[in-house]
Specification:
single chain; about 675 residues; alpha+beta; eight-stranded mixed β-sheet; 12 helices; about 15% helix
Length: about 675
């Protein structure tokens, strides 16, 4: 490490931001212009500083990358699924970064038809993403969308699968979402506002017509809502979904009649959430109607869809969260969560004989997989644990037998899941709430209080952080690290109330839960503050920013990936992507009560003169979700305010967006950077 390296210092150019009589001085507001050469130069200077300061780890980074890559089967493929007479497969070839999408007609022994080889598309591009494949009902056409920047702004096109020709129909500025009507020529798709990137319009295009004359079907004018177009599994209905954090509205149209108008299923009602599935002559609805906080299942005739016609199928339970349903000809499958664990319930339509799939440990995740076939006895689901590679399993709902179709291969001959211990423990939060923590470590690792531990969490949007398998984590576990996932409030692990208690004016529970989990792990001799590391991304990066302001002494190092840290400025700027649709998550700071609460925890606004941990902050120049300037401003401010001499790095990917690098293995290089940062702090060099 170069002791003579001097970190970049961003120029201070004070901007006064005033709201509700409160003045905030933002010295780095100017960094929000990516077209400004001075901004780009600052980001490049930070990158150069990071590269210089970590030059001694470059060889180790390469070794970590090769080690992680060597565990992954390069010539791999997905488990085929049957849809409308074709088996669909996604596969990778050795030495190539991108997937190949193919299909086989009628049988797996049939000749392979390559639909898309993304390696060809990606040639000469620093970023490439293919998304939104939708095959017409006659199997002759496929719509697809491409993004070459990483900002999730997709160009929609159509390919003739019989001739291989890409048609002239080319639609810019879409979300990538599209669906065919049953006439095999009418394509419905969603577009986004060019500035905010909110998905706000649904269009209808007939192949061969001028794309500029596409018919506007629906315009979602409420800027707190986003909209997409879907199709029911029964193939009978096209569905427009409008949703905000707390409210849902659907519109339906017979897919055989694309020329007709959509009909509102149930008008939006503030606080009413619902999701619909079609079966025979009814719709089945997962909803929070009637104060069903953890949701329930209802049904209604397809001819009378408003809520007064809904009747209960599965009633609400205080201790069971219903996360979704999957409908088959003879079975209703329900995804539940209780005591923080996934459950899959099988319910025959014939009545009686309901049962759950059996799972034996407490650090697993299981979920219903790709089940596009309606008339089948087979349920496909996924299963994994912190030490068990991901498996795709076909379960016969009639005979109750299962077949493991594929278990994720971990190459190299060194991995044995019996070498690792998995635990689920419970920390007690400041207010007495019990917080589950999932933990995994090598059986040789000692719990004597001196082991390095990486604590991960997210805690927002009701997204539950499942204890899943990640082969790259083995590079830490095999070097003595303990890995822990804190299932803090703001997620939905313990039911809907778990989410409610970690957002809006209760958001600070997310931060204090994380700190309480850290204190628990220290008290139980898993680690100590000299060896405890924190990691989170996006909204989990906000968590990192809040935690290091509140309890910096607990952590030796922190990794904040694409962190949402400038909460105040972002939530007050309605032109930034996602802002208005986030009001139900964070609150609307145009209202003083929310402004004051956000002001009290916003990481950027609460940086203060104190010692901070060693920190690695990452971002992408083209990020459309957390703009690059948030972490850039945060790092710039930390540099001038913090009182320690600990490491502080900003690493900006100048070619990528929120999801990082697009190549299959390129992303591992970013992981290798992060792991080398942690391992270097521990003095582990190989």
């Amino acid at each position: 490490m170069s002791e003579n390296s001097i970190p970049p210092v961003a120029a201070k150019k004070d901007t006064v931001l005033e709201k509700h009589g409160d003045k905030r001085i933002d010295s780095y507001y100017w960094l929000n212009n990516r077209e400004n050469p001075e901004v780009i130069q600052y980001l490049k200077d930070e990158n150069a500083y990071y590269e210089q300061m970590t030059a001694h780890t470059k060889t180790f980074q390469k070794e970590l990358f090769e080690e992680m890559k060597s565990r992954i089967k390069e010539d791999d493929e997905s488990v085929p699924y049957l849809y409308n007479g074709y088996f669909y497969i996604t596969r990778f070839e050795k030495g190539k970064e991108y997937p190949i999408y193919s299909r086989k007609k009628g049988s797996l022994s049939a000749k392979e038809e390559i639909m898309f080889d993304c390696n060809e598309f990606a040639k000469g591009k620093s970023y490439f993403k293919l998304s939104g494949l939708s095959v017409s009902e006659d199997n002759k056409l496929v719509s697809f969308a491409t993004d070459e920047k990483g900002r999730r702004i997709y160009t929609l096109q159509v390919k003739n699968l019989e001739t291989g020709e890409i048609l002239a129909d080319k639609i810019e500025n879409t979300t990538g979402n599209s669906v065919w009507a049953n006439d095999n020529k009418t394509l419905f798709y969603s577009t986004q506002d060019k500035k905010t990137l909110r998905s706000d319009k649904i269009f209808k295009h007939v192949l061969g017509d001028d794309v500029k004359k596409a018919t506007l079907v629906f315009h979602e004018k409420d800027d707190t809502f986003a909209t997409i177009i879907l199709k029911t599994k029964s193939k009978k209905y096209l569905v427009i979904n409008s949703n905000s954090t707390l409210t849902t509205e659907y519109q339906i149209l017979n897919a055989d009649k694309p020329q007709e108008n959509f009909k509102v299923f149930q008008p939006r009602t503030r606080g009413l959430e619902y999701d619909i599935s079609h079966f025979n002559d009814h719709f089945y609805i997962v909803t929070n109607k009637d104060k069903a906080t953890n949701f329930k299942v209802m049904k209604t005739p397809e001819t009378a869809t408003s809520k007064e016609n809904w009747v209960d199928v599965i009633p609400h339970k205080q201790d069971v969260l219903i996360e979704g349903i999957e409908i088959f000809k003879n079975y209703l499958v329900v995804e539940e969560r209780s005591n923080g664990l996934n459950k899959i319930k099988i319910m025959p339509w014939s009545g009686g004989g309901d049962y759950y799939l059996p799972f034996e440990i407490e650090t697993y995740s299981a979920f219903v997989g790709t089940n596009v076939d309606f008339d089948t006895e087979i349920l496909r689901f996924g299963y994994q644990s912190l030490a068990t590679p991901f498996s795709v399993i076909d379960f016969n709902m009639k005979t109750k037998t299962k077949e493991v179709k594929k278990e994720q291969a971990v190459l190299g001959g060194k991995f044995d899941k019996n070498n690792y211990k998995e635990e689920r423990v419970w920390a007690t939060a400041t207010d007495g709430t019990k917080i589950p923590i999932s933990i995994v470590y090598h059986k040789k690792t000692k719990k004597d209080g001196n082991s390095p531990l990486l604590q991960y969490a997210y805690g927002s949007y009701g997204n539950s952080m499942e204890p899943g398998f990640d082969s790259s984590i083995l590079s830490l576990l095999d070097r003595g690290f303990i890995y822990a996932i804190a299932h803090i409030r703001g997620g939905e692990e313990m039911g809907r109330q778990w989410y409610e208690d970690g957002k809006l004016l209760k958001k600070k529970n997310t931060f204090t839960d994380y700190i309480d989990c850290s204190n628990y792990l220290i008290s139980q001799k898993y680690t100590n503050p000299k060896h405890l590391y924190a990691e989170g991304g996006s909204a989990g990066g906000l968590l990192m920013g809040a935690v290091v302001n509140m309890a910096p002494q607990l952590y030796n190092g922190v990794i904040a990936q694409v962190p949402f840290v400038d909460v105040m400025t972002t939530m007050l700027d309605e032109t930034i992507p996602l802002t208005t649709s986030e009001y139900d998550e964070w609150g609307n700071p145009n209202e003083k009560v929310y402004y004051d609460y956000m002001r009290s925890y916003s990481p950027y606004d609460n940086v203060k003169a104190q010692d901070y941990p060693n920190m690695l902050v990452t971002t992408g120049l083209h990020d459309s979700q957390v703009q690059y300037w948030e972490p850039a401003k945060w790092v710039a401010k930390l540099r001038t305010v913090k009182t320690d001499k600990n490491l502080l790095f900003l690493d900006t990917n100048m070619d990528a967006g929120h999801g990082g690098a697009s190549g299959r293995f390129e992303a591992l290089k970013e992981t290798a950077k992060e792991f080398s940062f942690l391992l270097d702090l521990e003095g582990i060099t190989q």
